[in-house]
Amino acid sequence: MSNQIIKEKILQAVEILNEKNIDMWITFVRETKVTKDPMIDMIVGEHSTWQSAFIINRDGETAAIVGSIEEENIVKTGLFQKVIGYVKSVKEPLLEYLNDKNPKSIAINYSKNSVLSDGLTYGMYLLLNDYLEGTEFKNRLVSAEEIISALRGRKSDSELSIMKEAITETLKIFDAVTKFIKPGLTEKDVAEYVKKIMKEKGFQPAWDEETCPAVFTGPNPASAHSGPTDRKIEKGHLVNMDFGIKYKGYCSDLQRTWYVLRDGETKAPAEVQKGFEVIRDAIQKVADAIKPGVTGVEMDDIARNYITDQGYPEYPHGLGHQVGREVHDGGAGLFPRWERYGNTPFMKLEERQVFTIEPRLPVEGFGVATIEEEVVITRDGCEFLSPPQKELILIK
Amino acid sequence: MSNQIIKEKILQAVEILNEKNIDMWITFVRETKVTKDPMIDMIVGEHSTWQSAFIINRDGETAAIVGSIEEENIVKTGLFQKVIGYVKSVKEPLLEYLNDKNPKSIAINYSKNSVLSDGLTYGMYLLLNDYLEGTEFKNRLVSAEEIISALRGRKSDSELSIMKEAITETLKIFDAVTKFIKPGLTEKDVAEYVKKIMKEKGFQPAWDEETCPAVFTGPNPASAHSGPTDRKIEKGHLVNMDFGIKYKGYCSDLQRTWYVLRDGETKAPAEVQKGFEVIRDAIQKVADAIKPGVTGVEMDDIARNYITDQGYPEYPHGLGHQVGREVHDGGAGLFPRWERYGNTPFMKLEERQVFTIEPRLPVEGFGVATIEEEVVITRDGCEFLSPPQKELILIK
Description:
Chains A, B: It comes from Ignavibacterium album (strain DSM 19864 / JCM 16511 / NBRC 101810 / Mat9-16). Chains A, B: One of its GO terms (molecular function) is aminopeptidase activity. Two copies of one chain form a homodimer. Chain A is α+β, with helices and mostly antiparallel strands. Chain A has helices at 3-20, 40-43, 68-77, 91-101, 122-132, 145-153, 157-180, 187-201, 270-289, 296-309, and strands spanning 24-29, 52-57, 62-67, 82-86, 106-108, 141-143, 204-205, 214-217, 238-243, 245-247, 250-251, 254-260, 320-322, 329-334, 354-357, 360-363, 367-370, 373-377, 382-384, 393-395. Chain A folds into two domains: 3-152, 3-Layer(aba) Sandwich (Creatine Amidinohydrolase, Chain A, domain 1), CATH 3.40.350; 154-395, Creatine Amidinohydrolase. Helix content of chain A is 34%, strand content 21%. The radius of gyration of chain A is 24 Å and the shape is elongated. Chain A binds chain B through residues 30-31, 33-38, 47, 69, 87-88, 110-127, 130, 208, 225, 326, 339-340, and chain B through 30-31, 33-38, 47, 69, 88, 110-127, 130, 208, 225, 326, 339-340.
């Protein structure tokens, strides 16, 4: 991850600390090549061997307390105003720094809800408490969850431009698939073709290679989270692909739907066209309503209700999720009020969060109509990160 | 990692639970693609998304409690006698299982000392405690550190055979370097040559690519943990390389020393030859003494004292470390009584542990003499995992 982005994220973190009224945030790690706190890539970008504390303060000061062998590496990043190297133990320099700053609240990376905010191991938590034993600071530790979900959610300018590049590269591969698809090819053939292009371009899949890309053709395809099968593409099939890449540390996640014309057809049958348009319009309705302050469940309701009102079954998953360094990133999601989603459907959406919008519906006898777009929340609405699919793509 | 090895490790874990008098060991994880407990690769080999408990019992029973979406994957591994899938929460099936087994002690993966035993995050620790609230089990949690260091240290037959293959492949690359080295090439040239071979063979470096391989030529080279420089190999230089690969999930870690003959020389000068022999003999003295029950500090003393008795300065690091899936693996090490090594120099060595032996000494005006071998502790001694370097390699 380039230092430019890390610098932007550290500045954002300072804003967030002020907004959340927290004085200090410590990311406390060791041997990050073995066990890595998910935040290290976002705010440090270097590995640590000995116990290291990466500190961001509400007053804007940044400090790193690291083993002497890594001091120079960290100085080189230019990210931390104070780089304090130690030989014996991190304890003394850490206490010295805390006494100097005297923070009233100290956020550390643990969370019951969010794995991305839960990078602190229990052993390291115990060590930190040993070091703070007998000081006031021990009672000032709080969870960094709200800092981290805000920081990961609110994309910086550089993050957004990289995510747009990732989407552009991804759509080029969808275009190649449009030219490649023909009756007789299997779902696996299409997936292999995509993997070949990825390999040529040196792209990593955004999620497991078994299901990235996921390719579905025809009626009653495998469930949304299965890998490609030997099922053959036939005339009269709806074909979809769910696919994304990891690009400069950021993920893309898109879906497109194709229809394979039958002999004599020049357009899709009416019911196929309608199914596609219901999905397309559901996405637009959400895009028209989404903005800072609304909740994800409200957005899910809009799409879910519109689709069921048109006489289709509801999609068996959430409407959309945040995307970032992880394909499922951040806290809030465009989720229904289902227990497994916890409180995430009810969190207010914020400017600069990037969400997928990905409803689906089955068209009896033809297959599944589905589109997945990515939008970024703007001050008063949202912006598609790429031109949305407005028309069914016809395969002759 | 092949299931065969995982099966061997699970059987070893059962023995160790009996030996350590612990009833149950739970590896409790979630979203292992984001934050991975270092033990997952060794005892599961699959990713988890929802909260999952992988359980090994002293009575030999193995169980996995996993999200329903992953149940089939885990069943397929054939590693767990009971695979319990859940939809709502891991809590109920976990409590049911605990009530059924009623373990008197439950080891979980946390440790202040060992990062490899510290895969449980603090948030997951809190969740586990929430689930156990009001039960006796909450007070029966203990650290799995002694289980994990024994399990990682004691290599199974399959692990040893893979580690030998890794070493064989590594030595082939050292042999290629012997043919490649010539005056005028820089340390970086040699490193690039090694990286080219690794790329062709699809090998990963055993540690950071900046310092793997590490190449040193001539007098007063960069410190042992620096990367290759533009310094040129010259006639009359001692040249060394510290290098290892990651092969089928396991690391190798070896060093060899070459001498570049000066015009008219047919062998190395006496002081170079002596320096090399002192290192070679120091390693053999340790190999003669090392066996189960001795401590690492005793082994370090043997090499360190022998080298200083010969009038050379002591090496500025430990004599050796364990190797496994991580290049620095296991608990005990062949370390001096320096504070930063904690209790690891004083742990008794065990059969099947694999250690490096890597002393070094400077030869004034020529460079560094150093060799690194890997040995496995046997019932009554040790065995070199590859033929040790007995002669200085001469470059004409």
